[in-house]
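Narrative of activities, Objective 1.

The group set out to show that a structural description can be obtained from nothing but a protein's sequence at a throughput compatible with the screening campaign. Below is one input-output pair from the validation batch, recorded exactly as produced.
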Amino acid sequence: QVQLVESGGGLVQAGGSLRLSCKVSGSTFRNSGLGWFRQAAGSEREFVAADFRGTQQYYADSVKGRFTISSDNSKTTAYLQMDTLKPEDTAVYYCAVGRVILSSIRNPNAYNHWGQGTQVTVSA
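Output recorded for this entry:
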């Protein structure tokens, strides 16, 4: 049974940084896609960043240059380093894994295992 647990969320001022962690148990994401998504109140879940099989990383335009996705060598823990945070980054952040194909890396429906989410709040 694959389980994902996010941590590291919190309240931060605009311009600050946070690092989210996603611990995967029951499997690794070595041959899978590992994605970070977020959902603000009243909005749909949106793509933030993804790692495709440990070889390629992808980012939403809104976070490119500010967020960095990484993982440990065992491919059981992923990280999302978030710098220069803005109030519009406020959302619940989720990590997800799945045997996604590259063309679907940004599609939340392509992932079949999700964490419970962690709240990130950025104050102005």
